[in-house]
Design brief:
By secondary structure, this protein is α/β, with parallel strands linked by helices. It has 13 helices and 17 strands. A hairpin with a 2-residue loop joins β9 and β10. It binds NADP nicotinamide-adenine-dinucleotide phosphate (NAP). Belongs to the homoserine dehydrogenase family. It holds the Pfam family ACT.
Length: 430
């Protein structure tokens, strides 16, 4: 067997210790698949004295993670600190500059600085691997970039944030409101103390930006992703969606159209029978559509020590074998430069839920506004009667343009008889 591959791991939190445990538990199997042993030569974390449940006596310790890049015995640098700036970014840049291949699970870093980092890697001819950055244990990167490499991808979509999917699942199953379920998820450790990256859709948008770059062979463009989270989803909308034959999911969807590439993250109503509608709890799913392969659905655990370590070590095995591809699947000169399509130009069907005063003429006012914006109704649902009181009215539309829907919504929201901000959820025939 060849000389062992010596790795340096920066970050010994959930993922870092998971990687060390996997490498120890499956050492022989990993060595057989990698063609050589993979050994941890050096590590870095903030607190040297913390017991991490893994033996660290025989490894070189660095207080400064950036210094790992200069460790003379290291073949590959593994960045598992996290964050788009600070030590994670400095380490990845220093490692590439020092000619060391990098493995990272850091979606924030890749979404925001991935274009420049990929250029640096390409200029130096150094591999940069990031299977763990999207959908944890699901081999979404390899699946799209390598497995589906022969296809023109038309669309890639997914449930990319387990925290949101968990919250929406519990809200539906138990008929409870968002704030209460979020607080419980935080107490159970399923949501961060500061949950905004997850519930406001930012984490899913980081991952979608990476998937879109791979699917369409273009540099990552986080700024072009339209992002909405799940704070405004109510138990009432989830229940009404069920009556209409839908489930509400936070999806990331990137599509290639004649006008360019659209990328958006927002709550969606998907038909109950769609495979993605049944991906519940903390699970993630990625759906890709290629011109020759058709539809491919991948599902699995999108986070956690074991699944994420599985993806990190798969990258290490590739590097040990000398397997690597350009970051976005093609050399920078061969990348696509299709423009980004703004959200205003999105076309699709919509669900609107209004709380209106139950009095004559209200529905006529609303449908009149929709008519003015050339929006045609698919169905209308009004439950019960309570003259002079608030009742929910649900409208679903045929496909129309987002800009027209936005105009209609602001006029509908301004009507005296409409008592709350209307709820809008896009319907996706996924
Ligand atoms: N957790 C998941 O399920 C998951 C899934 C997919 C991708 N990821 C990604 O994997 C990466 C790591 O996530 P995680 O959940 O493992 O994070 P974590 O548990 O918070 O661990 C972060 C680690 O980085 C170390 N660290 C922080 N600042 C440092 C510094 N300045 N110098 C040296 N070490 C420093 C911390 O040291 P101390 O331990 O001493 O504080 C800790 O060991 C992130 O990019 C994340 O987005 C995570």
């Amino acid at each position: 067997m060849s000389k062992p591959l010596s790795i340096a791991v920066a970050g010994l939190g959930t993922v870092g210790t998971g990687v060390l445990k996997l490498l120890a538990t499956n050492a022989d199997l990993v060595a057989a698949r990698a063609g050589r042993r993979i050994i941890v030569g050096a590590v870095s974390a903030r607190s040297r004295n913390r017991d991490r449940g893994v033996p660290l006596d025989a490894v070189r310790w660095y207080d400064d993670p950036v210094a790992l890049a200069q460790d003379p015995g290291t073949d590959v640098v593994v960045e598992l600190i996290g964050g788009s700036e600070g030590p994670a970014r400095a380490l990845v840049e220093a490692a590439l500059a020092a000619g060391k291949p990098v493995v990272t699970a850091n979606k924030a870093l890749l979404a925001i600085h991935g274009a420049a980092i990929a250029e640096l890697a390409e200029a130096r001819g150094i591999p940069l691997a990031f299977e763990a950055a999207v959908a944890g244990g699901i081999p979404a990167i390899k699946g799209l970039r390598e497995g589906l490499a022969a296809n023109r991808i038309q669309r890639v979509a997914g449930i990319l944030n387990g925290t949101c999917n968990y919250i929406l699942t519990v809200m539906r199953e138990q008929g409870r409101e968002f704030a209460e379920v979020l607080a419980e998820a935080q107490a159970l450790g399923y949501a961060e103390a500061d949950p905004s990256f997850d519930i406001d859709g930012v984490d899913a948008a980081h991952k979608l930006a990476i998937l879109a770059a791979l699917a369409f062979g273009r540099p990552v463009d986080f700024a072009a992703v339209h992002v909405e989270g799940i704070r405004a989803v109510t138990a009432l909308d989830i229940a009404l969606a069920g009556e209409l034959g839908y489930r509400i999911k936070l999806l990331g969807i990137a599509s290639s159209t004649e006008a360019g590439i659209s990328a958006r993250v927002h709550p969606c109503m998907v038909p109950v029978a769609a495979p993605i509608a049944r991906v519940d709890g903390v699970f993630n799913a990625v759906v890709a559509e290629g011109d020759f392969v058709g539809r491919v659905v991948l599902e699995g655990r999108g986070a956690g020590a074991g699944p994420t370590a599985s993806a990190v070590v798969a990258d290490l095995i590739d590097l040990a074998r000398g397997r690597h591809t350009p970051v976005w699947g093609a050399a920078s000169g061969a990348l696509d430069s299709a423009p980004a399509v703004p959200m205003d130009r999105h076309r699709g069907a919509y669900y609107l839920r209004l709380m209106v005063l139950d009095r004559p003429g209200v529905i006529a006012d609303v449908t009149g506004i929709l008519r003015d914006e050339s929006i045609s109704l698919e169905a209308m649902l009004q439950r019960g009667r309570a003259p002079g009181e608030a009742v929910p009215v649900v409208l679903t539309t045929h496909d129309c343009e987002e800009a027209a829907m936005r105009n209609a919504l602001s006029r509908i929201g301004a009507l005296d008889s409409v008592l709350e901000k209307p709820a809008l959820i896009r319907i996706e025939p996924i």
